[in-house]
């Protein structure tokens, strides 16, 4: 094994140098050195609007809210690599896989104006999360392990919003992407995925026909297709469940929104806060059934104070529509039933 | 045998070679402090020291360290200040998520949430640190000053915490813990040990808090059944700062003027402390009186032992429901030690102090305090077997010598 790794790296490096410029670089993905510039990976053909044809674009039925940013998501699976899945529909990727996610806002011209691209690389030592920040001229993006802040202005709700957009640092990437001590992808859960190209979906299903039987996850904003309860639970799972899980970074709270909760208290209903500190305000419960105005979950979603706001990252703005969904959900709970 | 020899030799080689690779990464305050310091904390390798220069680091976001065996060292708790007054993101000032980390000789000021949090960070040392909300007690201050949680082997030594709107030093869901030589002042709770096993709290000064030292166990948490806690040789006086915790917090229920409060823990020893000038009481032992539906949780305190504490004045202004009435009935003052009576006689604390102790007779955990039937607690004549002292791995003790 010890000999195998350098050997693999060598063959990959050879493969990379002999490939044309547009090829995705397996060496950059697998490498021990983190490339200082995003272009080294070859994910984009110069411009973020021209992803390599080797990338699989996908969308999420219920996405994570991040300050109303638009996101573009891609999967790169190395030649010959096979995607697998667990029984719950979570996709398991081979070594050499990269998950690529770009964040940005519509510019004045209405086009996607990219700010940063985050990559998750599946290396022999495990998944590695790296943030790249695009240069002002958008010619390339530079690795910024320490994160940064970018002033951003964009159209929102009929006027223009202006925020200090936070690019997470490498540790913050892990905070959300950790399960125990390991970094894990969050998004690629089959039930929550949709593909731009039918051929991509078909190719995955050809190898994993059992996935076809899994029902799609509720779209948080599609009241016509799913119940209020289904939509609220989807929203909580995607926006909160990565930390609020038994192995997540909020494990000590005892509040589990990843779908693992087996009783009302673990879901926050009738549960008193533990380490919320001043974020509990004058309220007694995480969720008080029937009373969104008395639920800490709602008051924290409505705050942008870093000592109070939940989720902790990507929350310079309040997700008004998400708040509304969960307020409706809590209102609909019979008072005192739990 | 041969394998073992190889193992020993390679262990020796590792020990020999590690210092050769270890390096010091120096970071000075000034422009771009946020990104420079955060990058240093990310690029550090096991064995490295991240050395903070003297002066004020103006920070815009939380900082975090996820590399094991790193020391973060300043030039002194007065000299090196991590200033989070302008913090725009993250739930704490500094977050540690790796093992074998040593934090020493710097301070954290005015973080929006907690001061320094370490989660799942085993064998951590907090030494000669200051965490402060410089405006004094305010509801808008962050919750915890020093906040190790879900960790094994925790040493907090010679720190000072002021202004936390929850607990100055809070150790939660951890095991094998020492908190000593520290000063906690103007916090809601000075020191709080919560849902934890095996802790020694000694040689600390807790003053001008709402409550000095709390030992709590709460329901609906991954680790429950808090036990084996010793609180000794502390000075716990004049904890009369009006409770400024937001109401939903569990510590919002701590009556202003509390010395030591034990809630729902078992095997707690409180001895050789100087406790006084606490307007509600010097030592209180109570059950968890809120409704809960956690079948694995025991809301009753038990096997709480109180001996040889020196008591000053207490109980002239008890700040809990029904307290004033009981005090009036007892001639104007509440006793220096009381137990709520939860669970009945078999759960009574064992008291060997020279001051009167009282049971409120609230045997039923759901009873209203105004229905108390106070009765004296008879002083014990013999001391039960003592808990053993906490022993931390030698590396932790060596770090503070």
Briefly characterize the structure:
The complex is a heterodimer of chains A (338) and B (401). Chain A has 338 residues and is α+β, with helices and mostly antiparallel strands.
Specify which chain pair forms the largest interface: A-B, 49 and 57 residues
Arithmetic mean pLDDT of chain A:
89
Radius of gyration based on Cα positions of chain A: 21 Å
Shape of chain A: globular
Keywords:
heterodimer, A: 338 residues, alpha+beta, 2 domains, two-stranded antiparallel ribbon, 7 helices, globular, B: 401 residues, mainly beta, 12-stranded mixed β-sheet, 4 helices, 38% strand
Structural features, described:
The complex is a heterodimer of chains A (338) and B (401). With 338 residues, chain A is of the alpha+beta class. Chain A folds into 2 domains: 4-213, no CATH class; 228-332, no CATH class. Chain A has helices spanning 4-18, 26-30, 170-177, 198-207, 228-239, 296-301, 320-332, and strands at residues 56-60, 70-76, 84-85, 91-92, 98-106, 112-123, 126-134, 141-143, 148-156, 159-167, 178-179, 182-183, 193-195. In chain A, a hairpin with a 6-residue loop joins strand 7 and strand 8. Chain A is globular. Residues 1-20 of chain A have low confidence and may be disordered. Chain B has 401 residues and is mainly beta. Chain B has one domain (113-399). Helix content of chain B is 11%, strand content 38%. Chain B has helices at residues 2-21, 33-43, 323-329, 394-399; strands at 24-27, 49-52, 55-58, 61-65, 71-73, 80-83, 89-96, 102-109, 114-119, 124-132, 146-149, 152-157, 160-162, 167-172, 175-180, 183-185, 189-194, 197-202, 205-207, 211-216, 227-232, 235-237, 258-263, 266-271, 274-276, 281-286, 302-307, 310-311, 337-339, 350-352, 357-359, 375-376. Chain B has a 20-stranded parallel β-sheet that branches. Chain B has a 12-stranded mixed β-sheet with strand order 4-7-9-11-14-17-20-23-26-29-31-32. Chain B is elongated, with a radius of gyration of 22 Å. Classes of the chains: A alpha+beta (338), B mainly beta (401). Chains A and B meet through helix 3 of A and helix 2, strand 4 and strand 7 of B.
